Amino acid sequence: MDIVNLEETRAQEIKPYVYDYTLEDWQEWVKTIGEAGFRAGQIFDWLYVKRVSSFEEMTNLPKSLREKLRQQFDFVTLTEVANYKSQDGTVKFLFELTDKNAIETVIMKHNYGNSVCVTTQVGCRIGCTFCASTLGGLKRNLSPGEIIAQVVKAQQLLDATQERVSSIVIMGIGEPFENYDAMMKFLKVMIHPKGLNIGQRHITVSTSGIVPNIYRFADEDTQINLAISIHAPNDALRSKLMPVNRRYPFADLIEACKYYVAKTGRRITFEYALMGGVNDRPEHAEELAKVLKTFPMAHVNLIPVNFVSERNYVRTPRNDIFTFQRILEKNKINATIRREQGSDIAAACGQLRAKHMESGAR
Q1: 117 is in an annotated binding site
Q2: Which positions, given as ranges, span the membrane (predicted)?
Q3: For residue 15, is pLDDT > 70?
Q4: Do 25 and 123 sit in the same domain of this protein?
């Protein structure tokens, strides 16, 4: 299935979204319409510091400029279909887009601040056999503005309690590296000191292993964290769990990861979802340790698999999880077990959207 690009997706729409533009884009736009350059900074400030929801609220702009903005741009419409709050403070949103497709966004409460998990695609075509996000396949990519709007919405909610978004994980529905350009534009706006000003080291992007774009990301010269969804210690098992491995084999993925570490000097987090009787045996831990020993630094994030009714995987017993962790640590591989959040509100990727789709929605 071909990824649908933004122009095709919004064929009926002429106007770009205001969040689709970086500050540099705004500077170019005001120049083309004959406005003073400082107006770009004012627009950017209204969007990301004051976080207004309409052009009429941009009161220090001339009325004529506000009218031009209204004529040429739209705000992203994220209609809140559902809003669930977990006992642990996690808040999960199901948003409907202009074209009636649905996406998920999650706010997670930590002792170090508030983290937002954003979605980059409507659905996913990667086909991981344990994930709810792939149910129904890929519908389309999100625009940069549709990704940015998720963080703005989260921040607007936190504004009520004078809190702020302190970190971002790009681990929601979809494969970020298959919507690479939009993702990078999103990141550029997020880290801008005149925007939401999120520290680069407080942002993590996760990929299932789109090898060419791992090399590309390594060359971007950022301090943004990279996580690789590995989920198996060898080629054969990974291909069964993650069809993407057939396109980008395990050995090629490991080489790309080594390039990233050598180029950036930063460690990679390897995400490993433990599935009972599938990839969680001591021999799997030993094999994984052997692979990761070749890295000067590596961190494994062990994830007890989330139950998805459409899938057949079961959770690894607690004692087996600790055994897996101990084997890695014995081999001098740093390993942590992910703290579960929002399990009582179906906060795992794609679960809420899957339920929404069952009702006949998109």
Answers
A1: no
A2: none
A3: yes
A4: no
Is residue 10 domain-resident?
no
The overall pTM is greater than 0.85: yes
Domain boundary among 72, 90, 106: 72
The residues assigned a catalytic role are: 104, 349
Q: Is 131 annotated as a binding residue?
A: yes
108-135 pLDDT, tens digit each: 998 889 999 999 999 999 999 888 887 8
Average pLDDT over residues 77-98: 92
Q: Which domain holds residue 49?
A: 18-72
pLDDT at 348: 53
Which residues are CB-contacts of 179 (< 8 A; sequence separation ≥ 6)? Answer: 3, 120, 121, 141, 142
Count the helices and strands in the chain (H runs, E runs).
13, 12
CATH number for the domain that contains residue 259: 3.20.20.70
Pair of tokens at residue 222: 């950022």
State the CATH number of the domain containing residue 60: 1.10.150.530
- For residue 87, name the pLDDT band (cuts at 50, 70, 90): confident
Q: What is the mean pLDDT of residues 327-347?
A: 79
Domain count, the chain: 2
Residue whose token pair is 């950022």: 222
Same-domain check for residues 60 and 86: no
299 known member of a binding site: no
Q: Does 231 count as an annotated binding residue?
A: yes
3-state secondary structure of 165: strand
Q: Order of strands, edge to edge, in the sheet holding 91-96?
A: 79-85, 91-96, 102-110, 113-117, 165-170, 203-207, 225-229, 268-274, 298-304, 334-337
Question: What would the pLDDT profile of 175-190 be if each residue is shown by its tens digit?
Answer: 999 999 999 999 999 9
Strand partners of residue 303 = 273
Interior CA angle at 322 toward 318 and 324, to 5°?
Answer: 115
**Mean pLDDT calculated for residue range 53-58:** 97
Query: Is 13 inside any structural domain?
Result: no
